[in-house]
Amino acid sequence: MNNSHRQQRPMSRKLLLLGALPAIVMFIVLMVFFTSVRLEDARRDLSDSSQMLADSLAPALEYAVVSGNTLALDQILSQSLRRSKADWIRVSDVMGDQLGFVSHEPINPGEIPERYQIYEAEILQQPLEFGSERTAEWFEPDYGFGSGSLRVGTVQVGVSQDVLAERRQDILWTSIAVGVALLLFSILIINHFLGAILAPIRDLAGRIGQLTDGDYQERPLNTHQSSKEIVAIEEQLNQLAHHLAGLKTARDQTLAASEGAREKAEMANQAKSEFLATMSHELRTPLNGVLGMVDLIQEEPLTQRQREYLNTARQSTEDLLTVIGDILDYSKMDSGTLKLDSQEFNLRELISNCTATYRHLAEQQGLALNLKFFGDWPDNPVVIGDPARLRQILAGLADNAIKFTGDGFINIQAGFFALDDNCIILNCSVSDSGSGIPTERLHDIFNSFEQVDGGNSRLYGGTGLGLSLVQRLVELMGGHIQVETDLGKGSSFRFELPFELADRSSEPEPTGTPPRETINGTSHALVVEDNPVNQRVATAMLKRLGFHTDSANNGKEALDRVTTNHTGYDIILMDCQMPVMDGYEATRYIREWEQSNGQIGTPIIALTADVLPGTEKSCLDCGMNDYLAKPVRKEMLREVLSRWIKL
Questions:
Q1: What does pLDDT average to over the chain?
Q2: What is the Cα–Cα distance from 392 to 467, expressed in whole angstroms?
Q3: Which end of the chain is more exposed for a tag (fewer CB within 10 A), N or C?
Q4: How far is CA 121 from the centre of its chain?
């Protein structure tokens, strides 16, 4: 945080500090030097003046001391004290006895405080000269002070240390005041020049900010007020602006092209989705009629050959339906719209039923289809997952094995292994005794629209989507798949899938609406279908199940029948895509009419060839009760009807 704070300091402060720092250092050095010199001069001046006072008083006091005139002595001392900086003056004789003492404040001469600096001078009596040197020598006493003058006393001048301290304080404050004034003046001058220096830099910063904001207009150069270096930077910024303007133009063109390409791709993807939805609907609609009619015919008395013909027709139709489903699932996976279901189902039962479905087809080709369970299978292996996608994986591998195995066997093995109390792993393999796969082609078998031998699509049929869908479904369900092969001896596809164990400790209570009683003991159904063939198939299936039926060609007719039929309907089979009024709108109107008239809601079953993601949710959201995807089989219809009405 401190480093960030330092980095955010303005440049003006740094430059001001850089310019003021030398001035501060010089100020401190010079102030210390000159102050010390002035203090020493003040001390010396005070000492010299005080000593000079003592020296000048000594001869002036000679007469007064020799004559013993204390009045004259006191006058001289008082006048000298007033004219000097001394605090007191004291005169004593050669024996040290005090002859005179004056001071500014009362002081005991015998106890002079230590704060006083004392300056002394001897009071000398000049020798008297007589007529001859012999006489002079006879009158000159010898006191041991040498020849010449005779010392008759001492004058002492006392100066307080406070005077020097006051002088020092005055010098210090004067030096500081002058130094601070000079420093502030220097800072003002530096700040003035900093403004002139930083103004172009701030302009450059603003220019860079404009470039950042996308303003790439070139600016005129300020050659008169800016330095050479600043002008050079401005020239470079203009060149940068020109370059960025070119890049922006190119980028805008690229973005425009990309946006156009994206819109085209979205339109193409939307068109693909609409095409797949339309094709799925349009293909499933006639297939519903074909399979429905085949189901109805197979319930009639037939010869063995006729039944074989019908079985072939049924198988071909179901193969076509499988191809359509593969293409649709591949499209869903490619667009990321394939969603997994989550429901409880018996894992062992699903594998057994799926194997049984393909056992008849394998036996028709002379193949033995074997199923083996291993591992820790419980008595009731109920798991949570998507049973339809697991069935699709098993069906894809079984169909691939049957398709590419001329003779021999197909073995399906399913292992059940518990990871913990809530999760298990299904380890499943589908092995065959077919021709095998060349090692160099192993990495291609899971690619879309790929087969080991391109000619196989002619020999065996298929789109090449089967194994690709299987792999992507396994990975979507959180598992992985691998293949082992021995050329000429067969192949083995093994996959592992995780499943969550269902909580079977307590069976849940049945939920949902119980099947309703039929009206007057007779089941009455309304078939809403715009396709005459599918309408006829649905009507025939309902009649086989014991229903009386009415029909409508669109949602408007269905609404009219519901609102005018006084006996009411036990069940309504509603197609979703119809002219005049579709099934969604018709259902909403029917629900509104029932609510406004206090009618019990009639179960409405969606019957549609649209199997794209979100279709079932749309059906339930508009008020329908259940959903059936075309082609509809009789047993599927019976199962759904039994949820809503007692058959």
A1: 78
A2: 11
A3: N
A4: 93
Give just the sign of the alpha carbon dihedral 397, 399, 404, 410.
positive
Residues 375 and 490 placed together within one structural domain of the fold: yes
State whether 532 and 449 are in the same domain: no
Could you tell me if residue 612 is inside a domain?
yes
377, 418 Cβ separation under 8 angstroms: no
- Domain count of the chain? 3
- Where residue 571 sits, what CATH number does that domain have? 3.40.50.2300
The residue to which tokens 């008169």 are assigned:
224
Contacts of 332 (CB under 8 A, 6+ apart): 338, 612, 613
Which contiguous run of DSSP H or E holds residue 415?
Answer: strand 408-418
Q: What is the pLDDT of residue 495?
A: 94
Model confidence at 112, pLDDT cuts 50, 70, 90, reads low
Using an 8 Å Cβ cutoff, are 292 and 538 in contact? yes
Pure H helices in 336-409: 347-364, 387-403
d(CA 322, CA 330) in angstroms, rounded, equals: 12
Is 256 a domain residue?
A: no
With contact defined as beta carbons under 8 Å apart, do 226 and 200 qualify? yes
- Cβ-proximal residues to 207 (8 Å cutoff; 6+ apart), any chain: 219, 234, 237
175 has a pLDDT exceeding 60: yes
The reply to whether 442 and 561 lie within a common domain is no
Three-state SS for 218-254 is CCCCCCCCCCHHHHHHHHHHHHHHHHHHHHHHHHHHH
Which one, of 620, 606, 599, 639, lies nearest residue 519 by Cα?
599
Cβ atoms of 159 and 86 within 8 Å: the answer is yes
The answer to whether residue 354 is domain-embedded is: yes
* pTM of the predicted structure, to 2 decimals: 0.47
Collapse the DSSP code of 464 into the 3-class scheme (helix H, G, I; strand E, B; otherwise coil) and give the result: coil
Q: For the chain, give the longest Cα–Cα distance.
A: 194
Q: Do 417 and 551 sit in the same domain of this protein?
A: no
Helix (H) or strand (E) holding 532: helix 532-544
Q: Is 128 exposed, middle or buried (0-12, 13-18, 19+ CB in 10 A)?
A: exposed
Query: Would you say 226 and 234 are in contact if contact means Cβ atoms under 8 Å apart?
Result: yes
Whats the size of the chain, residue-wise? 647
Average the pLDDT over 298-308 and give the result: 82
Whether the pLDDT of residue 132 is over 80: the answer is no
Running DSSP on this structure, what letter comes out for residue 419?
Answer: S
| Least trusted range by pLDDT, from 134-138, 217-221, 271-275, 334-338 | 134-138
pLDDT of residue 129: 56
What is the 8-class DSSP label of residue 201?
A: H
Residue 508: pLDDT band with limits 50, 70, 90: very low
**Phi–psi pair at 468, nearest 5 degrees:** -65, -45
**Beta bridge partners of residue 482, listed in sequence order:** 494
Cβ contact 16:183 at 8 Å: no
CB-based burial label for 362 (10 Å; 0-12, 13-18, 19+) = buried
Interatomic CA distance for residues 181 and 173, integer angstroms: 12
User: Do residues 529 and 464 both lie within one domain?
Assistant: no
Angle between helices 387-403 and 347-364 (to 10 degrees): 20
- Asked if residue 434 is part of any domain, the answer here is yes
Range of the domain at 91: 10-168
